[in-house]
Amino acid sequence: MSEARSYLELHFRDLEQQRETAELGMWVFLMTELLLFGGLFTAYTVYRSTYPQTFALASHELSAPIGTINTAVLLVSSFGVALSVHGAQVNGRKRLLVGLAVALLLGIVFLVLKGYEYHDHYVHHQVPGLDFAWTRPQPEQAQVFFFLYFLMTGVHAVHLIIGIAIVTVLWFQSYRRRYSPEYYTPVEVGGLYWHFVDVIWIFLYPLLYLIR
Amino acid sequence: MSVDGSESERDYLNVAYGVRSWLLTTDHKRIGLLYMVSLTLMFFVGGFMAVLMRLELLTPQGDLVTSDTYNKLFTLHGVIMVWFFLIPSIPSVMGNFILPLMIGAKDVAFPKLNLLSWYVYIVGALFTFYVVVSGGVDTGWTFYTPFSTTAANTHVVSTTLGIVIIGFSSILTGLNFIVTVHKMRAPGLTWFRLPLFVWSLYATSVIMVLATPVLTITLVLVAVERAFHVGIFDPALGGDPLLYQHFFWFYSHPAVYIMILPGMGVVSELITCFSRKKIFGYNFVAFATLGIAFFGFLVWGHHMFVSGESIYAAMTFSFLSYLVAVPSAIKVFNWTATLYKGSVSFETPMLYALGFIGLFTIGGLTGLFLAALGLDVHVHDTYFVIAHFHYIMVGGMVMAYFGGLHYWWPKISGRLYPEGWAKLAALIIFIGFNLTFFPQFILGYLGMPRRYHAYAEEFQVLNVMSTAGASILGVGYLLPFTYLFWSMRYGRKASANPWQATGLEWTTPSPPPGHNFAVTPVVTEPPYNYPTTEALPEPYREAQVV
User: Fold this and answer.
1) Less Cβ around it within 10 Å: N or C end of chain A?
2) Does the structure show a pLDDT above 80 at A191?
3) The most confident of A74-78, A131-135, B62-66, by mean pLDDT
4) Topology of domain B26-543, per CATH?
């Protein structure tokens, strides 16, 4: 198993071709993902410019401190992933395992904080579709804001959950010494995905929490 | 199948037997056949809806079906034909089968993903079947809001979810093809030695990967708005219905190019092979392919001239729509220039290719009528539009699909189809098609609106012609279905290269072995390197006599 040859799938000429193929595949997939979020970003931009005042008011209902902490959490998790890829490259087993574990734990921390925020919105009747109540003017505009907020952060959270699942699998495989400097493509490709989920949040954070 | 498989090397069809060996295959050739079977089924289901519609329109009164049923018929016809036949048609069937062979690869880049995308397709199709049996959907294939999210009392959510799911199938196929073309080409096969079919699949895949996710998220928004009654497109809830149309057409206009570019690629192969000539202006055709894919993303607003978009947006979209005509025209001119002084012969695939050029040109030029701001107001939502896009979709893409199917049939099945029957079917399809859809141009210009089950008396003659044409077209479609099946068992055995065509797919036996090539081919020639003066050698035509 430790021999590099065993990782080579039959339809590739060599490991180099296999690695480049996997990486390009992930990049193309991320382009697709970008366009998926692109639809949501466009909808947000359109409604933000149509209902600027209500959106500013509604944005105040989000907890900027939690949003900020979560941003830091995700950035550090991305550092963990970068660390693990480097660990795989230089045969640094400890670095690989610790890096993935850091990403995994911080990913969960992010979700917990996000869940707390969601709960808070639920308590304050700010979930569209579930007895939404808005005492200030233009409730339907505020509802559009919260709908977009839940959908954008929700789709992001789904991606993060998938990312956590990927990192968990990678951790166990690394623990069983599957990866080596000759072959660590899954770590690298999984890492790309994790960074992408992080980058999406980097855009969600100012749009939803900071522009007021 | 044949019993003498033991004497030669095992091919992909008899390398393993049984249902499992098909349902769990990662061989791109077998996956191509899985798609072919599923798409054929969907084609006939969608076609059945069209038959009922044409029967209803035989008389001016709405007497065969109620208006509600009629609404469901045209909606399901559109949904099934667009997403479950046309979009995956050439890419998923012939692209899957031929692309790796054409570039000298053992398989696509991600064989398991390839199988997954077929299963995703099937799940999407099951949603649609559920909709068909549980009462249908009546919004039209465009799901315009707020009707789809509020007033429609049919299965909008299931239908949109089915389309979301099949969207992933399309994305996965596109992703696979892009990476395959980039990374799996045989040594020496540079970008400008690629067959033009590969270029067209590449451009199509780019559109699939970039446009489909926007439809995905849009239909999710529609489903959520409908299911939970929260506003995003419904004006009563603070939404903007025009935004829905922007989103929908941002996907669905490029999707038109998903539905035509692969057909253009097939036609490029056919025209060169049956003219025994290099394609005229290879680079122009290749770049025109990318140009169509690019401009295709910038013209969606021409669907919304009467929907309340600003006049400046409309002018811009109109202008950009005219630009798409340039690369399309380049292709048509280059095909005709390829024919010029070629040794043209009229085998069945060539009949389809020539049919394609004529019908696509009519469809494309009437598209320019529709892109003109003033004229569009007159013919918007009339049968003129129906006729226009059927000339592209059916006259273009379905013709190319059949052309490609016949051209590669010896490679796919290892058998020759009966040429006489095939020529007859091609002729019947061409006549039936024109009789069905040409009268609709006139009907639309005279003002008959689309999507009604009853119409004014004076339109009856043209409608009867159209229905008669549809019956002929139906017979035309049943013929290949029958004789291709027949040929799998009784057709003559095909040699590796029955057409004496260029291209790596013809260098391997018919049907190809499981791993495609015994030795990885090395390419040293430009594409379409036909000796320019020789006609298609006779042996093939002799072999056709059954």
Assistant:
1) N
2) yes
3) A74-78
4) Cytochrome C Oxidase; Chain A (1.20.210)
A20, A32, A128 ranked by CB distance to B209: nearest:
A32
State whether A25 and B105 contact (CB < 8 Å): no
Query: DSSP readout, B224-288?
Result: HHHHH---SS-GGGT--HHHHHHHHHHHHHHHHHHTTHHHHHHHHHHHHHHHTSPPTTHHHHHHH
Residue A142's Cβ-side half-sphere holds a number of Cα atoms within 13 Å equal to 19
Give me the domains of chain A, ranges plus CATH numbers: 12-210 (1.20.120.80)
8 Å CB contact of B179 and A129: no
**Terminal-to-terminal C-alpha distance of chain B:** 19
Task: Label residue B14 exposed, middle or buried (CB < 10 Å: 0-12, 13-18, 19+).
Answer: middle
On whether the CB atoms of residues B57 and B448 are closer than 8 A, the answer is: no
ipTM: 0.93
Spell out the domain ranges in chain B: 26-543
Question: Which residue in the set A10, A24, A42 is minimally distant from B179, CB to CB?
Answer: A24
| Side chain identity, residue B262 | P
Residue B165 sits at the chain A interface (C-beta within 8 Å): no
Distance CA(B327)–CA(B313), nearest Å, equals: 23
Adjacent-strand bridge partners of A180: A183
> Which residue's entry shows tokens 């202006």?
B281
pTM here?
0.94
The dihedral sign for the CA sequence B223, B229, B230, B231: positive
Phi/psi of residue B541, nearest 5 degrees: -65, -35
C-beta neighbour count of B338 within 10 angstroms: 23
Identify which of B274, B275, B264, B217 has the alpha carbon closest to the alpha carbon of residue B244.
B217
Q: What is the average pLDDT across B267-290?
A: 95
User: Would you say B540 and B205 are in contact if contact means Cβ atoms under 8 Å apart?
Assistant: no
Which tokens is B237 given? 């809830």
The verdict on a CB contact (< 8 Å) between A13 and B183 is no
Q: A118 — contact with chain B (CB < 8 Å)?
A: no
DSSP secondary structure code for residue A3 in this structure: S
